[in-house]
Amino acid sequence: MGLDIFIETKNGNHENYYEISRGFCYQISLLDEPDQSAKYPLEIQQVYTLYNLEYSILKQMNTYRFRQQFMSEENVPQEKLDEIQAGLSKAFQPSDQLKNNLKTLYSRISENPNLLNQIQLNHVWIKKYFDRFHENIGEHLVDRNFGWDLRGIIHYLEKLPDGTLIRFGYV
Q1: Are 131 and 137 in contact (CB under 8 A)?
Q2: How would residue 18 be classed by pLDDT, with cut points 50, 70 and 90?
Q3: Based on the structure, what is the number of domains in the chain?
Q4: For residues 39 and 103, what is the distance between their CA atoms, to the nearest angstrom?
Q5: Whole-prediction pTM value?
Q6: Would you give the DSSP letter of residue 134?
Q7: Is the pLDDT score of 65 beyond 90?
Q8: How far apart are alpha carbons 144 and 24 in whole angstroms?
Q9: Are the C-beta atoms of residues 70 and 84 closer than 8 Å to each other?
Q10: In what order do the strands lie in the sheet with 93-94?
Q11: Which of 10, 38, 52, 149 is deepest in the core (most CB within 10 A)?
Q12: pLDDT value at position 141?
């Protein structure tokens, strides 16, 4: 059993039919608290840098650190709960911003997929996640690749009305 990520709307709805992989979950969850043993920047940060894009929306939408703060303490003081709740509220961002960001990234990767070969890997297993960008590889959440995730998330975001507030949630 592992950590799963989903896109949550401000009205509390989320649908898992787009099924984001654990590879994407791993990358997003570490945006705020990098792996201290890593030799290189997080792979998704490298991708955004290689394709000359800003990834700040991914960090803004990330709720992992707040989830960890809440789960790590038994009797969380009210002041800390208020701080966590404020952070969770700030994580909501307009869906069209993420959609436009991911569509631009997808387009740039499609134009020059070989740049993905320049990613310096912190873990050997993550290579499979960034391989064969235009193919839907893997059958389960654990096996899917970056291209599949981007296509699935973009497809989901295109169905939301522009301006719908969303954030990344974890279960």
Answers
A1: yes
A2: low
A3: 1
A4: 29
A5: 0.89
A6: T
A7: no
A8: 9
A9: yes
A10: 5-9, 165-170, 93-94
A11: 149
A12: 60
Q: Which residue has the higher pLDDT, 100 or 1?
A: 100
Output the pLDDT for position 147.
94
Q: Which two tokens stand for residue 80?
A: 């800390």
Q: Write phi, then psi, for 32 (nearest 5 degrees).
A: -90, -30
Other Cβ atoms closer than 10 A to 109: 21
d(CA 125, CA 39): 15
Q: Does the CA dihedral 56-22-123-47 come out positive or negative? A: negative
66's tokens: 């707040």
Name which of 168, 45, 22 is nearest 98 in CA terms.
Answer: 168
Give the range of the structural domain holding residue 131, as residue numbers without chain letter.
Answer: 5-170
- Of 145, 147, 152, give the one whose Cα is nearest residue 23: 145
85's CB contacts (< 8 A; 6+ apart) are: none
What CA–CA distances, in Å, run from 84 to 26, 61, 62, 73, 115? 21, 14, 13, 12, 38
How far apart (Å, rounded) are the C-alpha atoms in residues 97 and 93?
7
Mean residue pLDDT across the chain: 88
Q: What is the mean pLDDT of residues 16-29?
A: 82
Say if CB 155 and CB 50 are below 8 A apart: no
Q: Enter the DSSP assignment of 116.
A: G
